[in-house]
Amino acid sequence: MKIAILSPFYPYRGGLAQLNARLYTELGKRNEVKAFSFTTLYPNFLFPGKTQYVSENDSVTVVESERVLNTVNPFTYIKTARAINKYSPDILIIPYWMSFMAPAYGTICRLLKKKTKVVSLVHNAIPHERTLIDKPLARYFFSGCDAFIVMSEPVEKDLLSLRKDAKVQLQPHPIYDHYAERIDRSQACDNLGIKKDKKNLLFFGLIRDYKGLDILIESMNLLDDNYQLIIAGESYGSFDRYNKLINESLRKDNIVVFEQYIPDEMVSILFSAADTLVLPYRSATQSGVVALAYQLELPMIATNVGALGSAVKEAQTGLVIPSATVEYLSEGINEFFVNREQITIYKENTKKEKSRLSWDNFARSIEKFFMEL
Question: What is the pTM of this model?
Answer without folding.
Answer: 0.78
